[in-house]
């Protein structure tokens, strides 16, 4: 069933009023008519609604959706700034895999640099990508997407999380197979996790030392070297398996 994320003011009692983008999608793309049902979500609460006729498009709430597809742990992805298509892939697929938030950060080896003049256009596009991915994958919540920050500011946020994991290529090269497994194996339901992935050239030795000294667990991700856009998806998949499928 098609899903739409709305604002609180769009629901009054048992009546739902759609915004223009959602209405256009319902009428033009889905070609739905009066009597058809969709799911609307507001602040993590989702309802099955029946479409009515009229301008603007409205619907009536029928019942509350009971299925919950959110991960039992809150995973924030700190992805170093990379080329636009790679970052957008991480946002889209990371949302499908259950990420709760995304924090782009400026790493030493990031080819892409932050440009405040362009950022005002990028952030709305990033938020649109995660919103559409959340609708497609049946999420209850749309992940938060933050403006890019520096590594020092990222480290200052470590205290917000129960566990910080950083993918580090050098750990994989020396055959590390335990750090990621052991850290995740002790992770309980309701905990918060920050996963950190460097840019195309990886984290520098200096960055890795600072992250480790500040409490991050430096992890190898198996015997193969993963691309920057693959690593966070691997980590999210492993966390999903551990917290959702293996229990």
Report on the architecture of this protein.
The protein folds into 2 domains: 3-64, Hypothetical PUA domain-like, domain 1 (Ribosomal Protein L25, Chain P), CATH 2.40.240.20; 74-245, SPOUT methyltransferase, trefoil knot domain (Alpha/beta knot). Helix content is 35%, strand content 24%. The protein contains 8 helices and 13 strands. Strands 7, 8, 9, 10, 11, 12 and 13 form a 7-stranded parallel beta sheet that branches. Strands 1-4-5-6-3-2 form a 6-stranded mixed beta sheet. The longest helix has 21 residues, at 116-136. The model has no long low-confidence stretch (mean pLDDT 92). One of its GO terms (cellular component) is cytoplasm. Specifically methylates the N3 position of the uracil ring of uridine 1498 (m3U1498) in 16S rRNA. Acts on the fully assembled 30S ribosomal subunit. This is Ribosomal RNA small subunit methyltransferase E.
List the helices and strands and how they pair.
Elements: E1 3-5, E2 11-12, E3 15-17, H1 20-29, E4 37-42, E5 45-51, E6 58-64, E7 74-80, H2 84-96, E8 101-106, H3 116-136, E9 144-145, E10 149-150, H4 151-156, E11 163-167, H5 169-173, H6 179-185, E12 192-197, H7 205-213, E13 217-219, H8 231-245
Helix pairs in contact: 2-3
How many DSSP-defined strands?
13
**CATH superfamily caption of the largest domain:** SPOUT methyltransferase, trefoil knot domain
> How many strands, which pairing sense, and closed or not: the largest β-sheet?
7 strands, parallel
Radius of gyration, Cα only, in angstroms?
20 Å
| CATH level-3 fold name of the largest domain | Alpha/beta knot
Instruction: Identify low-pLDDT runs.
Output: none
Q: Helicity range of the residues?
A: 25-40%
Shape: elongated
Structural class: alpha/beta
Distance between the termini: 28 Å
Number of H/I helices: 8
Counting structural domains, the number is 2
Main location: cytoplasm
Function: Specifically methylates the N3 position of the uracil ring of uridine 1498 (m3U1498) in 16S rRNA. Acts on the fully assembled 30S ribosomal subunit.
EC number: 2.1.1.193
Family: Belongs to the RNA methyltransferase RsmE family.
């Amino acid at each position: 069933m098609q899903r739409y994320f709305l604002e609180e003011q769009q629901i009054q009692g048992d009546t739902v009023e759609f915004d223009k983008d959602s209405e256009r999608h319902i009428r033009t793309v889905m070609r739905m008519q009066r009597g058809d049902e969709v799911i609307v979500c507001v602040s993590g609460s989702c309802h099955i609604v029946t479409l009515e006729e009229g301008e603007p498009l409205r619907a009536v709430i029928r019942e509350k959706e009971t299925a919950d597809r959110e991960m039992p742990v809150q995973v924030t992805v700190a992805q170093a700034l990379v080329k636009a298509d790679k970052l957008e892939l991480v946002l889209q697929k990371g949302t499908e895999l259950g990420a709760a938030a995304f924090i782009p950060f400026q790493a030493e080896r990031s080819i892409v640099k932050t440009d405040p003049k362009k950022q005002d256009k990028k952030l709305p596009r990033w938020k649109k990508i995660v919103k559409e991915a959340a609708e497609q994958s049946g999420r209850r919540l749309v992940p938060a997407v933050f403006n890019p920050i520096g590594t020092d500011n990222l480290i200052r946020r470590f205290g917000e999380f129960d566990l910080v994991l950083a993918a580090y290529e050098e750990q994989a090269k020396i055959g590390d197979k335990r750090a990621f497994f052991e850290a995740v194996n002790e992770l309980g339901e309701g905990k918060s996790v920050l996963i950190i992935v460097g840019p195309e050239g990886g984290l520098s030795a200096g960055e890795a030392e600072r992250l480790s000294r500040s409490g991050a667990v430096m992890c190898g991700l198996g015997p193969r070297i993963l691309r920057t856009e693959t690593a966070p998806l691997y980590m999210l998949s492993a966390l999903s398996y551990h917290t959702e499928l293996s229990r």
